Amino acid sequence: MGGDVTRLEGLLSLFQRLRERPTSRAGDRLRPLLLTIGTPHETRQVAHFFVEECMADGGPYSHITADGQSSFTDLALLLRHVSRDLSAHRPRFEPALRFPLLSMALWLLELRRMRLQQEQAGENEQAPRFSSNAQRQAWQLAGDLRAAEEDAHRRTLLGRGIRRRRQIVVPAQRPGERGRLASALVYLEQVAPIGVAVVALLSAGTAATLNLATAMLAAAVGIVFIAGQITARTRDWAGRRRYRWFTASRQTYLRGNRSSDFLGLALDVFFRDEPDPGTPLDDELERLLVAAFLQDLRHGYRRSIWRANWARVRYPVVVIDLFPAGHPSRDQTRRFVERVEELRRHEERFDPLVVVFPLASADEAARLAGSIRVPLAQAATVDLGMVREYEEGNPFWNEYLAEQRRVAVLGTRRAFQVDLGAGDGSSTEPIHRGRRRPWVAHPAMPWIAMGAILVASVTVITLQTVRYCSPVSVWHADNGECIGITDGSHIYAKRLAGVEKRIHRLNKDAVSSGKPYVTIVYLGPMTTDPQDRSPQADLMAGVHGELVGLSIAQEKHNEANGQPRLRILLANSGSRFRYAKQVADHIRKRAGEDPRIVAVIGFGQSRRQTDEAIDVLGKSALPMIGTTNTYDLTARRKTSFSPYYFRLAPSNWRLARHAAYWSRNGQLDGLQASSADVFYDASRDDRYSQNLARDFADAFKPGKVRIFAYSDPSQVPGKVEEACAAPAQLFYYAGRSDEFRSFINKVANTSCGGPLVVLGGDEVTKYVSDNGAELGRTDTLRLYYTPLAAKEAWDRRWVGGRPLQTFYTEFEPVVDSLVGRTAPANVRPSRTHAAIGYDAARTIINVAERIFGEQARTLPTAAAILSELTEPDQRAFPQGASGLLRFGPRTTGHAVEQKPVVLAKVEKNGATTVLQVCGHLVDSGQQGASCPPNP
Questions:
Q1: 393: helix, coil or strand?
Q2: Which top-rank group of organisms is this from (predicted)?
């Protein structure tokens, strides 16, 4: 056999070149037949070598053997066998060739055969015993189609039968059996990598440019689409694009009266008569089957975006053995070859099929080659009339172009005739092996590319997930805090969860009510620094209180059917307002998109970043209400204050001036201090602490003042020890609440003489709110402070018979509902800050209501709110929980004129007593207090 192979090397190389698919640049080319001439032994041996070559490189092949068990009595059986072989034999992991058109045509012929059987058997004949449910369904469908009288009814029945059959892509081995269904896995191999990659890219891009929620929605829609496509590919729908070839203009082999659409053609096939008894197929049916088979092959080898199609580098081969004379398959194999070549000449189109056909003699091969040859035009003389030009063109020239096109498609030869018994094909060169599959076309490449894209996209989405705390507009800051804007749906801190949920519910009610509403944004520090593990760091009683005050104002207004209703957005600036500018940029952008945003309130801490946020929001002319910000120069630029910022709290100068007056004039339980030690935070970004300390020192003169500045909380104990070496009569604390515990602990445990009098600024209020009882029990000091509002200020001693302001009657029930009646003080909000937050919200509500009523129910804009705040109505002063509310001119920073300044003391039982109330708490009936003279 080795010698035989050597002699056949040239033939094997020719066979490989016939099978080799050209590159896309060279283009696909129709191959001629390979006719082998020799004895049955020679042709069978060559066929065996050809099959071994196909098996070695994995190319698709079908071997029609003379010694097999199958006998092909008609062309339909032969095509079943060939299509199944070509689909089964393929490179590893390569998607199988699919034959949906041929499978459908064979199924229609099976229905036709059953109809003929039913007609021959008569009406009383029992249905045969079928071995499969598919056969029983087909038999029933054939009977129903016969019984139906109207074509519309027949179309309905046939369409329903096709859907029930589902999509068959490879015919069954024998008629009546169910072929292979459309494989979802095969579809996945081709489409899923591209689909998943596209979905991943869209999701990652959406996550990077929009938000995580949209990214998840895009991913979900994409996955549902891919799943839907897979489901659709396993179903069959008559009359759709899948079978449009049957009614295309190129399909002229079988057309009947109904064949305007696929169902009509299917009925024409079903009701087609048998030409001769015992002859199941006529010429038209044979041509239809072969044409469908070749069209399926073209579809499998079309150069498109699907990797499986252009990755196939071997044409499919049908290798036929030499059958003995009289064998039924001999005529059918020859008929198959002739039909294929007949259709190729008729259509003049490429198909990828390569056929190896054996013949016993050279004469027989010549006759076959002559019957399928492509005749070339003879060089005949023509007269002038034959080259005449017509409106539709030149017939002579058009015929020449058609001949040229025919030769270009079919080639100059349609058969290679090789005599196996003559000559020696051995060569010094190895057998041609053909080009290998491009590495980019490897079946694993789409999955590798998809995996890389998926990993990259998941990485992007993961980074966005890490970046975003909430899929709306809350993201991780550099230090890990969650900053941004929410409607209350995102919980910034555990302590704030109850009030944030309350605001979220009130917001939903306002929006869903269908009534007009306006939106205000609260900007404040709603998280603590993750790097600071101290439980007292950045005490949240203040911001907790402001949110509760906002929610009380919102609920009372909306429940009273106030117009327009109020919606509140919560913008977290991060601890110590460190990200206020970034968040302000987002507020400004959002206000530009949503005209209902009419004001921003908060700005409670006097820091550099707070002023930067005010500058950013001022560019959008948004009115801003400062709650507890007391820095003298907040919102001041060069020679004037911002026209958009309005201050609710008294300035540091007023607070320090009153504190110094009370210290020197015996209001601290009789102490007339002539010396004071002042402690303040000298960190670069803090503008409150140093400003308050300097204001107090200036106001305390001519008393003796020593200044103790610290730039880091760890320095506080050392400063206390330094002061206690020769303590002054008064310790004035102008620092932040963050370090007040360290300050108090050191004072209480250091020999400073005692009990020591400590006077704190308004910032101390947050600490007192959480730790009042502990402070009262500390015998080594007596604590006084200047809160910005106090319920105790509404005592008859100060306001006479005036009733308690509405806010204070609502505060405790709301707090109890949020944190529980028995909750400890360190989880309850600061009532002082709640009063300020309530007043800020009521200020905007009052203005919005007035504009809405006076402007024919026109929804207020930010500009209208700003105008009204700048030039307030001169009717009665609005009454707030912290005093009368009317802003002064821009020259004073739009400060509330004569805003009350309160002196409070922490008693031994932890309760707070108000000792002095200076300023306009109520419009009339306010009792006198010991206050510094007006400057």
A1: strand
A2: Bacteria
